[in-house]
Specification:
The structure is a homodimer. By secondary structure, chain A is mainly alpha-helical. Chain A folds into two domains: 18-60, no CATH class; 63-150, Orthogonal Bundle (Arc Repressor Mutant, subunit A), CATH 1.10.10. Helices cover 64% and strands 6% of the residues of chain A. Chain A is built from seven helices and two strands, in the order H-H-H-H-H-E-E-H-H. Chain A has helices spanning 17-28, 35-60, 65-77, 83-90, 94-106, 128-149, 154-175; strands at 110-114, 122-126. Chain A has a two-stranded antiparallel sheet. In chain A, helix 4 crosses helix 5. The radius of gyration of chain A is 21 Å and the shape is elongated. At the A-B interface, helix 1, helix 2, helix 3, helix 6 and helix 7 of A face helix 1, helix 2, helix 3, helix 6 and helix 7 of B. The structure holds a DNA duplex.
DNA sequence: AGTAGGTGCTTTACGAGTAAAACACCTGCT
DNA sequence: AGCAGGTGTTTTACTCGTAAAGCACCTACT
């Protein structure tokens, strides 16, 4: 009665790994509504496969994905960011940002400048080399993403983007400040 | 011209973090087609938030998510699995499985039995305590997932499941055996 | 002015995953 | 039978992220 997708969707959406996992759970726990798994299991699995695939070109450039995210944040915002800004922007802990920034400055991709007013804070920006690296990598990433999505027609792509946005909106609203 | 979702979708899908990130990239690189980001960025972000949220009840039970995945694989298949099977089933490395199995057997959740034919392989199964733990946790997980999705009506949920399945099918087909 | 409390960042200690090597065992060829 | 090569699992050395403590600095109250 939980109004989920238990409905049926007759023979659709066969042949992905999540479908077989869901069927296994249904066999073992016929009483539970496995509808949500059809969505959330697939989101998780898609994300895992996408990251694995997209990491390859980055590693070729000697970057981890979190490092690329950090450089990307600096590039796309267009202005300097503090470590704290970067932590929020890349959804990672402050400590992780500290270490990544250290590694990236040593490699000459990022520069730091102390704030004159508040001597606790640092301002970070890309060096020319850092900017060039991001600008070289980004088209590669997008080309791969485009090729993955090329199997879906544009209407499906838009539909997927809209539905995911709805889901994400809900997640971000609900999880903005959870109780640990 | 790459037939992506660049079309427009006028004012739709505002107010999630991915939308603002995409707008930033568009401002810096107006030449690139950022359509794929609208999908793939959201998949990644949704997965990150979902995992973070779903980890909480697991940690309360003293389990990490990979550990729960391992126990879940044993539960849903209903029969014994070898470490290799588990590695494939949970998409993790053999070494990681070895360590997790060790920890879980020490906690009395998993039992191992040597193969009589081939003495290299072990067969693993849940203890009663392991089975009970999974069976107690699973409804919690599903209830949370149901509540997250409760904002979407059933038709949207089905649509999302179908579209994600199409994407996942493509990813699994393409990435079954990549070249490192 | 002096100080208590908060903020921004970094350091430390540790846990967890990985890749590569090591190990133990099986299989098929001669 | 004996051994070369393959497979299933574990071990080792290392990397990376995290939580919690630590440090330096700012701010606002008395």
């Amino acid at each position: 009665m939980t109004a989920s997708s238990g409905a049926g969707v007759p023979g659709a959406t066969r042949s992905d790994t999540v479908a077989t996992v869901v069927r296994q759970w249904e066999a073992v726990h016929p009483d539970l509504d496995t509808g949500p798994m059809e969505i959330i299991g697939r989101v998780n699995r898609c994300a895992a496969l996408l990251q694995q695939a997209e990491d390859a070109p980055l590693r070729r450039a000697g970057l981890s994905r979190p490092e690329f995210d950090l450089l990307g944040a600096l590039r796309r915002t267009g202005h300097e960011l503090t470590p704290g800004d970067l932590a929020r922007e890349t959804f990672s802990s402050g400590a992780a940002v500290t270490k990544r920034v250290k590694a990236l400055t040593e490699r000459g991709l990022v520069e730091r400048r102390g704030d004159t007013r508040d001597r606790r804070v640092a301002h970070l920006r890309l060096t020319d080399a850092g900017r060039d690296l991001v600008d070289g990598l980004l088209p590669e990433q997008l080309a791969y993403e485009t090729s993955v999505l090329s199997g879906m027609d544009p209407a499906e792509q838009d539909g997927l983007a809209v539905l995911l946005s709805a889901l994400l909106g809900r997640l971000e609203g609900r999880l903005g400040a959870p109780r640990p």
